[in-house]
Amino acid sequence: MTTQTAHDIDSVDLAEFRSTVRAFANAEIQPGAAARDESKEFPAQLVKRLGQQDLMGISVPEEFGGLGLSTRTQLVAIEEVARTDAALASIYTAHYLGLEPILVGGSEEQKHRWLPQLASGELLAGFALTEPDAGSDIASMRTVARREDDGWHLSGSKTYISNAKEADLVVLFAKTDPSAGFRGITAFVVPKGTPGISYSEPQDKMGIRSAPTYTVYLDDVVLPLDSVIGTEGRGGNIALTALNRARIDVAAMANGIALRAWELGREYATERKQFGTPIFDFQAIQLLLGGCDAQLVASRVTADWAADVKDDGQDIRRAASISKYVATEACFSIVDQTVQIHGGAGFMRESEIERLYRDCRILRIFEGTSQIQLLTIAGNAPSPRSTDF
């Protein structure tokens, strides 16, 4: 077990940083991952430990209480957490998604009020956008907010919301002008314990089972007038900006799962013998492992490129979608091929690769499906005469 935290590393040496986070993850996260998957228990203590390791606000600017490090550094941390427990990584990336709207759209007062506690891990964040009839089409949301003398009154529901019940604050989106479609959406900060909010039981999911999601019910929830993030009617833009930035984090989560799958495939191929020799010696297995290696390297390079685009302040829509699409599709392929290497053993519930197979499937759906990513990529492609390719 390491006692060194991320903040103890003076220079941004990613190899050293990865070693520090991996030692922590191997010692504290990986041992109970299978049991948490079985029990579906929210890992509250591990979420707290992420904060104690200075990992909850890696790329948040120092003026708002974060470490002020690069997005590449953040991706390393996410990847290493996902390598040991995809469910905890889902909670972790949902936290970053929840703080993004405040970071990119909040007032200076809101940033100084909320971000230091989020970056330290004192507070956990959530992000509530999806509704039963509004997934990729956020303009069709039905949750409404009306302004009255005593504040904003919100009514409606959200579904598939990660961290919803456990989060200390949730950034929630509602229509303040139902007739304006996308331009009628506004973002709000909703602190934990706000009256009028109730939750379904944790939803029973195929994978990432200890990262609970809920349907959230809003029954005339009253928020202070200063709960609006940014300005009224700008919530749709804030949501999409936050999602674009968060898609790079999901790419890192996918790469972490894929890395663990590749490790398991090599280990099993070395240990498993058929016809008197390890199956690693068979060309068919080497072809599978070689393909996994190539896909993983390409995915990680693509995620790093997208991270640099973000940190350079450029338009990240295309890069973020490319990184998420490449990484999540590659992750599913790598895990699937690793199950193939395991044969029947990989189909058994007690095998780690079986859990990874269930965990990775959601990655091609949340934060925008693979098909939405392709539409975004096509819609933001450079001109054929551009030198940006």
Automatic annotation (TrEMBL):
Residues 233-378 form the Acyl-CoA dehydrogenase/oxidase C-terminal domain. This is Probable acyl-CoA dehydrogenase. One of its GO terms (molecular function) is flavin adenine dinucleotide binding. One of its GO terms (biological process) is branched-chain amino acid catabolic process. Belongs to the acyl-CoA dehydrogenase family. Pfam families: Acyl-CoA_dh_1, Acyl-CoA_dh_M, Acyl-CoA_dh_N. It is an enzyme of class 1 (oxidoreductase). Its cofactor is FAD. It comes from Rhodococcus erythropolis (strain PR4 / NBRC 100887). Keywords: Branched-chain amino acid catabolism, FAD, Flavoprotein, Oxidoreductase. It comes from the Bacteria.
